[in-house]
Amino acid sequence: MLDSLNKMFSGNEGDEPVNTTGKPDISREKSAELYEKAKTFFPGGVNSPVRAFKSVHGTPLFIAKGDGCHVWDADGNQFIDFCCSWGPLILGHNHPKVKEKVIEAMQNGMSFGAPTALENELAELLLKHNKFIKKLRFVSSGTEAVMSAIRLARGYTKRDKILKFEGCYHGHSDSLLVKAGSGLVTFGETSSAGVPKSFAKETVVVALNDREALEKAFEKFKGNIAAVIIEPVPANNGLLLQTKEYLQFLRDICTQNGTLLIFDEVISGFRVGFEGAAGYYDIQPDIITYGKIIGGGMPVGCYGASAEIMGSISPDGPVYQAGTLSGNPVAMAAGIAQLNELLRMGFYRDLNNKAEEFAESIQRFAAARNYKFKVFHIGSIFWFAFTDKETVSRADEIDPASMEKFKIMHRELLNRGVYLGPSGYEVGFVSSAHTKVDLEKAKRAIFDSLDLVFRK
Known about the structure:
Aspartate Aminotransferase, domain 1; Aspartate Aminotransferase, domain 2; 2 domains
């Protein structure tokens, strides 16, 4: 995973080729000015690396506002947005009911560092409609949720080692910011400066969709693996869809070895259904983590498990975890409004049908022209891959050279008013705010862009 992250952030400024293939480039004058100023304040001019546009053409777009399925940049360019703040804006930008609830909460204060009734209300909404967790703890981000889940697993099992999969990303905590070494089963190797080798040595890394590697890992580290963590819908390094059979095998081998299974549902949670991938595949993990989607896009996350496992968390148990902004009232209010919308009758049916038709119509277009291009999708998540493979379930099945085609496509889509995340390794999202008209317009832009990519 970290190899692909490094590819996302690599590139050289000032080497932009002249655009002679498609529409004239949109104006980025104000965004470019803001970026130059930002570089005097922040490393690389950004507060999260992929935003630097290093793996696509041009300088970053500075977004000025969003409404519905559209965003506008500092130069006034309007885009149909399929990034959706990296997924949590399942209702689109600035949804009126979310905004109303946020304003109502803000009028009473924005932070207390003390319990509020809003925490109870959001927790009840989550637990009442999710049979896979019985208690939860709110935190401030998906990364924090995963970090806390790992600590909980170690404290509960009294074991130290964690097993993760190459191609799954779980935030930037030290234990998980590792990549695979050489060999079938390896200790993790530090993939970021500042992560001690001793930390990485507590993480075992194996390939996705490889039963033999998993069996050998449990054999080699028998009785020492506290938890296996996986994105049940791996969506941070392409959309590396796993079969239900493989995920069930993972569940079974964890149970046999007294190891906790953690589903990192920061992306898949509430995207493929209200109960996330656990519900979609009907597999019970031991701990589940969620991210910003439970707070309407506000900085929030949570982790949940059985009452017994969660009983290990302080103040009930010995595993310490705390946060002044945990359960922040504004974030809780936004989450209450958003989740109530998701619980409306037919919400997921309508959204997923819309996303499926969008993805499959693009695939039909590419197939009719014999383009080496696939659209992988699940729920309202999709991924554009320049490949002729019918399935891509492992990180090493992605051709790095294909990212050059995405780079061209991304530029052409921006010039046609369509915004995707600035990396070919990232997935896209359809929201309930995307209308048929918006999706038809986006499809036409995608068709034109693909024609230009494959004309070269």
